[in-house]
Amino acid sequence: MKNALFGGVNAAVLTAMKPDLSPDPARMAGHAKWLLANGCNGLGVLGTTGEANSFGLHERKAILEGLIAHGVPAATMMPGTGCASLTDTVELTLHAKAQGCRGVLLLPPFYYKAPSDDGLFAYFSEVIQRTGGGIPLYLYNFPQQSAIPFSIDLIGRLLKAYPGVVKGSKDSSGDYANMKAMVDNFAADGFEVYSGSDEYLQRILAEGGAGCITAASNGNSHWGGIVYAKRTGPEADAAQAMLTATRKAAVSVPLIPGLREIIARSTGDEGWRTIRPPHLPLTAAQGDAIWAAWGAAGALPLPGFAAAKAAE
């Protein structure tokens, strides 16, 4: 897909925290800059991997502002702004717009289960009307977490009613057929489809998708960048195999603390293990296991890390 706003590899960025569990934008910004220098085209901040729903509104605003203050360009970031509350979603979306972000990622209103498509259409219509439609919205399809899928019919209704505002989707369902259906039905109209699963990057690009927004990109973005640049051929195929292997390694333990462990061991910064309950850090055995799995895949040390440390 040409001219996608976030086309390419986007890391679902981990949120750094201080020992008291407060956000640490300075440490997070350092990681974000490393990602942008090592294969990432953009950054999905304050999503599932970033533990957005463990933070309050003021904290989420402070994280975004802090990243910008520490030199992460607002235009590279797609913050998650979807909340269970309509007014919270509107407030965070307007805040992201005011900071200069080019798009936001919206979960559906996830507390009440099994809403109708009519109810979801009404919710997103209110969000669009109250935010003035001045910032592109990306739909976050993650039914395993939200329990609310976005149907093809609902997406079609939103695109017809609000052309150019509902700009795309991150599909973390793991159902490739669903991702392809989005591409087949809407990509010709400029709808950007991003895989939430690393193993589908090469495939979704070939189908006309825009790229990926993934958790494992916190450590495997180097190879994602190769896939996005090359698309096909031996180098792209080998890089895609690495994405698939590292994704498998990442989900061999609880995903978010596992990725924190990889970054902590790679940087020597134990602070990356700090995580808000109900999540917990890995046990020592789990930490050894995921480190070994990434090493067995050939992904360690993380490419570009030594150069980044030397530049500090």
UniProtKB/TrEMBL annotation:
Pyruvate binds at T49, I213. The keyword Lyase applies. SUPFAM superfamilies: Aldolase. It comes from Dankookia rubra. Belongs to the DapA family. SMART domains: DHDPS. The active site is at Y140, K170. The keyword Lyase applies. PANTHER family: BLR3884 PROTEIN (PTHR12128:SF67), DIHYDRODIPICOLINATE SYNTHASE (PTHR12128). It comes from the Bacteria. It holds the Pfam family DHDPS. Keywords: Lyase. This is Dihydrodipicolinate synthase family protein. GO terms for molecular function: 4-hydroxy-tetrahydrodipicolinate synthase activity. Gene3D superfamilies: Aldolase class I.
